[in-house]
Amino acid sequence: MSKVLMKGNEAVGAAAIKAGCRYFFGYPITPSSEIPEYMSKALPEAGGVFLQAESEVAAMNMVYGAGGAGARVMTGSSSPGISLKQEGITYAAGAEIPCVIVNMMRGGPGLGSIQPGQADYYQSTRGGGNGDYRTLCYAPASIQETVDYVMLAFDKADEYRNPVLIAADGMIGQMMEAVEFKENLNKNLPAKDWATTGTKGKREKNVVNSLFLEAEECEDHNLRLEKKYKLMEEKEVIYEAFGLEDAEVVCVAYGTTSRIVKTAIKLAAAKGIKVGMIRPITLWPYPYAIYKDINSNCKGILGVEMSQGQLIDDIKIGIEGRMPVYFHGRTGGMVPTPAGILAEIEKIAGGTK
Amino acid sequence: MTMVYEKSKGLTDVPFHYCPGCTHGVIHKLVAETLVELGVLEDAIGVAPVGCSVLAYKYFNCDMQEAAHGRAPAVATGIKRVHPENVVFTYQGDGDLASIGTAEIVHAAHRGEKFTTIFVNNAIYGMTGGQMAPTTLIGQKTTTSPLGRTVEHSGMPIRMSEMLATIDGAKFVERVSVDTPANIRKAKKAIKRAFECQIQGKGFAIVEVLSTCPTNWGYTPVKALGWLQENMIPYYPLGNFRDFEEDK
Amino acid sequence: MEEKVIMAGFGGQGIMAIGKLLAYAGMLEDKQVSWLPSYGPEMRGGTANCAVIVSDEAVGSPLISKDGTAAIVMNLPSLSKFESELVPGGKLIINKSLIDVEPKRKDIEVYYVSANELAAELGNPKVANMIMLGAYVELTKIVEIDSVLHAFLKVFGENKTHLVPLNKDALLKGAEAVKVRA
């Protein structure tokens, strides 16, 4: 299929439909409103249902119901809206309901700003809702990646019976780039024989539920979930890394920020500074192991994020204290510049010269 | 030997956890019987709430989903939109439906969602230990209104059926009680009508069932029924507020 | 080769549209492209702007900050706002019809195009944006005019075929305007 120029939010919708998603429940919020707008037109054409919910809370609980009924279903929003969805996300994780939640992150906290942000990293990777649960989380850096990972997200959601997050930022949502839609992978996924579809008198009743009043039962349930999460940690880590073997400085960034960092790395190269990069594509599970490949002469790790430094914790876990960790970021909807990042790189590279 | 009574096939064999004298058991039975009598048990998907009937998913003998507190109408919306041919119902208490889930029930009704809601109103939070509900009567003492509910502090008790009956998408709204055999028969009729409303694709249907909570009210089961008759029915009048036949 | 152009003007001048046309034309020529709009309160009245990058290599930052290779400014507030975003030697294309001041910087190439008058000459004031785009394409040769016209049908739909000749004339008129000056 040939390339088309698409806005990120619309590409999310198109990718979801391509992946077999036929249900979308959402609520408008800047900068992700084009997702429901697109779905309101495209889903009925694809034989599906779009419904604008009365609230973010209701939208996510509709996703819970539809996912529990066996459908491929998605919702999309932006930071404050995603906060409201956390109740439904933890219930979906607990009841093991496959679904996809797209977050076009904006500046926070609270109502924050409508410009791009990445300050929902903790919320996305540490569990934004209550209880012991994990959600696979993809952080695409381009519209093409957004399309690819939205499609993969549906397969992974079904494979693990788990909610999957797409953590992008407002820039991804609003930007247009060329995209190509690949055929859906749809590898042998497990049958949804657990879903509530009516027994038709042919099987025992199915129950979709996250309640276990007996503590022992609840612990057993959590241990079973934990096994699933461990499997995701083994099998689902995705990242991009380069230049670690001889880098003087290694930058860590994801999403749109990683592209700005790449521009800064080119500028640094022109000045004779070797800079490597680790770009987590899955924010959870996190690519901790790749940090072992960083050469021991490297002077430091620079995390760059549209936040006050939420990704730092994972960098520190990955680097295990072998070298200093620095941070450069802009927040509240401001975006780091290549020049600003370069200045930090130069400081670190020159620090011990 | 003649069989004079048999437990409905709409219920599982799991013993109820409800307190002695609580009317949830009767209401469960009415819903289960209705599903069987209408021949839709095998197509039914129920949504259980948070509250005393949180374990309803164990008792109804059909596919069930357990919803977050107050969100059953949203969950049911998701299910019904995926499976419009199935019969979908929510079973909710007054804390769930009339307090934390007000937005969800109002908007499900507004959209005319084609599912059926059984709303059990016992004027108190039972599961959490007898706290004040939005439906708690004026002067009624609860663990969070120890001196009795006052209008000044908490406003008047909310009448959900009257409110929902003003909404176009709500095609069947009736308040019933299960305090006497006669009223139980009327309740059964209303519940059946509410499911027929859905099966005929008319729109949203709700039956509010006045119920007792002997444990948290602090009365014997018999006295609790008397309290319901003397205090709840005068404030929450029984009757039909909306029927889909009128809308023809 | 990498072109990073800011396009800015009043809402309604067709700024976003020419940005999309350029990005689409670049994509049709197998180049890497990005189009990033300003969004939010800014788009509700007042100025509209977008950043378009057309490159032989993968696009790094989709933002343009102090590294623009060109700017198309169609009103005065845009000139004040974006003049500073250009690299030394960057091209600044000014809509002379609506901007009667000169830029402050002396280290950039400045081109004046009376877009509104030229559009009026073509009998349609709406194509002032296409005149500016024509001037930009002529100066940078980043895409072919034909690619822009091909993109026009992709962006606005095949049912707009009847508008292609007018828009082609506008692109050529804009190109001519800067050829004369150069």
Main attributes?
heterotrimer, A: 353 residues, 11 helices, C: 182 residues, six-stranded mixed β-sheet, 6 helices, globular
**Biggest β-sheet: strands ordered side by side in the sheet of chain C:** 2-3-1-4-5-6
Number of DSSP-assigned strands of chain A: 15
Q: How does the overall form of chain C come out from the CA principal axes?
A: globular
Q: What portion of residues of chain A belong to β-strands? A: 15-25%
Terminal Cα span of chain C = 22 Å
Question: Taking Cα atoms only, what radius of gyration of chain C do you get, to the nearest Å?
Answer: 15 Å
> How many strand segments of chain C?
6
Q: Could you report the average pLDDT of chain A, rounded to the nearest whole number?
A: 96
Radius of gyration of chain A: 21 Å
SSE ordering of chain C:
EHEEEHEEHHHH
Total helical segments of chain C: 6
Shape of chain A: globular
Tell me the strand order in the biggest sheet of chain A: 3-2-4-5-7-6-13
Helices and strands of chain A: which structural class?
Answer: alpha/beta
- Can you write the helix and strand succession of chain A as a string? EHEHEHEHEHEHEHEEHEEHEEEHEH
Helix-residue proportion of chain C: 25-40%
Strand content of chain C: 15-25%
Average pLDDT score of chain C: 93
Main sheet of chain A?
7 strands, mixed
Tell me the major beta sheet of chain C: 6 strands, mixed
Element layout with pairings:
The complex is a heterotrimer of chains A (353), B (248) and C (182).
Chain A: E1 4-7, H1 8-18, E2 23-26, H2 34-45, E3 49-52, H3 56-68, E4 73-77, H4 79-95, E5 99-105, H5 121-125, E6 136-138, H6 143-160, E7 163-169, H7 170-174, E8 176-179, E9 207-208, H8 215-235, E10 239-242, E11 249-252, H9 255-270, E12 275-280, E13 282-284, E14 300-305, H10 312-319, E15 325-329, H11 338-350
Parallel strand pairs in A: 2-3, 2-4, 4-5, 5-7, 6-7, 11-12, 11-14, 14-15
Antiparallel strand pairs in A: 1-8, 6-13, 10-12
Chain B: H1 24-37, E1 44-48, H2 56-59, E2 63-66, H3 72-82, E3 87-93, H4 94-100, H5 102-110, E4 116-121, H6 151-154, H7 160-164, E5 170-177, H8 181-199, E6 204-210, H9 214-217, H10 221-235, E7 239-242
Parallel strand pairs in B: 1-2, 1-3, 3-4, 4-6, 5-6
Antiparallel strand pairs in B: 5-7
Helix pairs in contact in B: 1-8, 4-5
Chain C: E1 2-10, H1 15-28, E2 32-37, E3 47-55, E4 68-73, H2 76-82, E5 86-95, E6 109-113, H3 115-121, H4 128-140, H5 145-156, H6 164-181
Parallel strand pairs in C: 1-4, 4-5, 5-6
Antiparallel strand pairs in C: 1-3, 2-3
